[in-house]
Amino acid sequence: MTAIAFAQPDAAILARRDAIVAGLAALVPSDVLITNPDECRAYETDAFTAYRRMPMAVLLPRSTQEVAAIMAFCQEQGVNVVARGAGTSLAGGAIPQEDAVVIGVSRLNRVLEFDRPNRTLKVEAGITNLAVSAAVAPDGFFYAPDPSSQLACTIAGNIAMNSGGAHCLKYGVTTNNVLGATVVLADGSIVELGGDAMDMPGLDLLGLIVGSEGQLGIVTEAILRVLPLAEGARPVLFGFDTSEDAGACVAAIIGAGIVPVAMEFMDKPAIEICEAFAKAGYPLDVGAMLIIEVEGSDDEIDFTLQKIVEIANGHGVKVIKQSRSATETAQIWKGRKSAFGATGRIADYLCMDGTIPTSQLPYVLKRMSEIVAGYGLRVANVFHAGDGNLHPLILFNANDPEELAKAEMAGADILTLCVEVGGCLTGEHGVGIEKRDLMPKQFTREELDQQMRVRAVFDPQWRLNPSKVFPLENRWMPQ
Amino acid sequence: MQTQFAPERLADSQMAESEKILRSCVHCGFCTATCPTYLLEGDELDSPRGRIYLIKDMLENDKPASADVVKHVDRCLSCLSCMTTCPSGVHYMHLVDHARAHIEKTYRRPLADRFIRAVLAAILPYPNRFRAALALGRLGQPLAPVLAKLPGGERLKSMLALVPQKLPRAPKPTQQNLAAAKKGRVALLAGCAQQVLDPEINAATTRLLNRLGIEIADTKDTGCCGALVHHMGKEHQGHVAAKRAIDAWWPEIEAGKLDAIIITASGCGTTIKDYGFMLRDDPDYAHKAKAVSELALDITQYLATLDLPKGEPREEVIAYHSACSMQHGQQIRDEPKNLLKTAGFTVKDVPEGHICCGSAGTYNILQPGFATRLRDRKVKNIERVAPDLIATGNIGCMTQIGTGTDIPIIHTIQVLDWAYGGPKPAALG
């Protein structure tokens, strides 16, 4: 169960636990600090439950100033800090460690300012992704990145992982939709990066923060770009005999220069799992399915769909089913967005997050099945096909340590395959601990060192989320 | 999720069931987003995922409940919003029921807490005692500010705040105007607190069903369905109540004379529909309990099968408040609204309608702080749609929301009875 190692806890810090906790207690109101082991346990993992570490304490501050005070204290005391949004990471990004405190931003969840003429929304970063869209929906706007966990995950977590989602094919990922951020740095200083417009003067430090997995600072506020809702949108289900046919169809659509707003792939096991939960009317007699959503005016939708249907026909599509109502559309997306959780009905799973060039889809789909079958396991595939972001779910039994080990090995093989065909280890879930030890497959030693030099500018002592992203060996430290 | 139960502990059927539930949870965290207490607190310990984790640790390691675990489990409303949200099908209700029973067995509550729970369990399920207690409560209302200063006094104060100024008279519903052509025969749960607080609900049900040609079987008194004590972890008392209700209905069921058992309080409906599970290991009652659960229907579910005629458009705008036990516990969503629309009303959904009003059985007495914050949030959302009246299908919500707004709040069945020829509900003046 412990194939992935954490750094040895710092014995000196553990020995000073009581003093550290007392110091924190003097700093914040009592209901901000959780120290009782029974209670801390609920924070020992995220959605990557194969790994668990008890934190020394958990803090749930209510303001940027409180976050700053805690960070300054931890820096002074040499205590590690693990930031947490909603704890929905599938890569273990929010898993704590014994010599660290958790700083959770879930209470920083207010909408601060809607600048309608400039189409920006300022929020506290602990607000959930879906609550952002809900806040501007009455005015006809939405926030584009829509990770499947958008109901629960926070903007802070989205920024940390540079999250995408089904609709980022057209609208880009988090980094394309965040304009500014208030960040608390390791020493407790508060900085504002970016601003309220697309192009701000100076170095793009905000671009550095997005996707930094809680290693450069803690984001407490963000200015987001919101977009006008399309006049209409229509998802269509395309059923194929095989995954390879569906994969080839995706590559052909992208190759033809068509950009639907979303293009999602599900294979037979995934279709069956999601249909059982969402009753969305997915075709059950096909080997694979694409959900392709097109938006705009009715004419525009019809025009684009016609071109897509022609391409699909050329790839042996068996079933084409259009959503006929808002309710059907909602059900279709509910099924897709609940895919991971719904898989829990039949088995435990590891969810991979590799990306590949879309032209490689048919080959990679075939190889993934072979890899997983080679370990005697099953796989359900559900992913963002349009931008080549794969989410194979490797099914296993969590109560069988041998199966977990096999699932982890299959996962590593799949991600290695992604890198080999010209893709990368993670599309949107982040490296976390899950993919940390695979980083040398993606990067050379020099490339890793260079990234760590950048990291060290913000956190020279490796105090922020220290066990993640970079392999524990050969860590670059400033001289 | 991985579990680590010692094999011998899984011989216990309830433990085995809980293990199965825990195994189905993948810890995705979706449930946190729709949990009322997480919305208020932002602390995972006050969310389903956090509670599941606390319960897992307690059951897995056979630990007696600690004060901290009890605090967070007690704060759970059992609104079951998490079950609607959960993509993995985690049966949180059965897990938290098990946890509450475990707490009751292994944890000694502070004296004031034990006292108030004992009082509630000894009074609420018994209509005569409850009626007497309400009369006393009205006398006690002036003392509320003083009582609030005693240990546990906040709860006494909130209990007194819920006492209505006057109680409606309680005529026993009689069958009348039974349409000539008999179309069906049902049993009607008389219930406990509801028949004291608002006897008109079952009277309206009787009137409307009779007009539609449905006969109501004259069964023995069922007493309380057991939901109130069951939710306090008093498992044995809950089972005794369930068996009493089953015994009252059984002769009719055995003779094949019932089309349905009709329930007009959705909180009771959720529990009665779960009798089959609650008594699954009882050799004498398992099959009877299952039969009762299968026959149990909310009044709106039953009416939806009767094809009521379309009414002329009416001017009243109704905000439909779906009780948690209706939308989450029983997954009944459209039937009540469709019936009201068919009757001619304009029906509006309440924004954030999936979040509890804070009533939740005895929750508004035991957790007054959370309950009041949730009530105020609910009232604000209801007022945003500016309705003429609020319709809902659960007496608990009616009492709770009624203390926070002047908009009349009326049981769905009374509104329907009115629309189909019955008297105008008194609350509408």
Automatic annotation (TrEMBL), chain A:
Single GO term (MF): FAD binding
Pfam family, one: FAD-oxidase_C
InterPro entries linked to this entry: FAD-bd_oxidored_4_C (IPR004113), FAD-bd_PCMH (IPR016166), FAD-bd_PCMH-like_sf (IPR036318), FAD-bd_PCMH_sub2 (IPR016169), FAD-linked_Oxase-like_C (IPR016164), FAD-linked_OxidoTrans_Type4 (IPR051914), Oxid_FAD_bind_N (IPR006094), Vanillyl_alc_oxidase_C-sub2 (IPR016171)
Record-given protein name: FAD-binding protein
Organism of this sequence: Pelagibacterium lentulum
Oxidoreductase found in the keyword field: yes
Sequence ranges assigned to domain FAD-binding PCMH-type in this UniProt record: 51-229
Cofactor(s) the record lists: FAD
UniProt keyword terms in alphabetical order: FAD, Flavoprotein, Oxidoreductase
Superkingdom of origin organism: Bacteria
From TrEMBL, chain B:
Cofactor: [4Fe-4S] cluster
Pfam families: CCG (PF02754), Fer4_8 (PF13183)
Domain 4Fe-4S ferredoxin-type: 17-45, 67-96
Enzyme Commission number(s) from the entry: 1.1.99.14
Catalytic activity: (R)-lactate + A = pyruvate + AH2; glycolate + A = glyoxylate + AH2
Protein name according to UniProt: Glycolate oxidase iron-sulfur subunit
Taxonomic classification: Bacteria, Pseudomonadati, Pseudomonadota, Alphaproteobacteria, Hyphomicrobiales
GO MF annotations, alphabetized: 4 iron, 4 sulfur cluster binding; glycolate dehydrogenase activity; metal ion binding
Biological role: Component of a complex that catalyzes the oxidation of glycolate to glyoxylate.
UniProt superkingdom: Bacteria
PROSITE patterns: 4FE4S_FER_1, 4FE4S_FER_2
The keyword NAD is assigned to this record: no
Organism: Pelagibacterium lentulum
Keywords: 4Fe-4S, Electron transport, Iron, Iron-sulfur, Metal-binding, Repeat, Transport
InterPro entries according to UniProt: 4Fe4S_Fe-S-bd, 4Fe4S_Fe_S_CS, Cys_rich_dom, Glc_ox_4Fe-4S, Helical_ferredxn
Annotated cofactor note: Binds 2 [4Fe-4S] clusters.
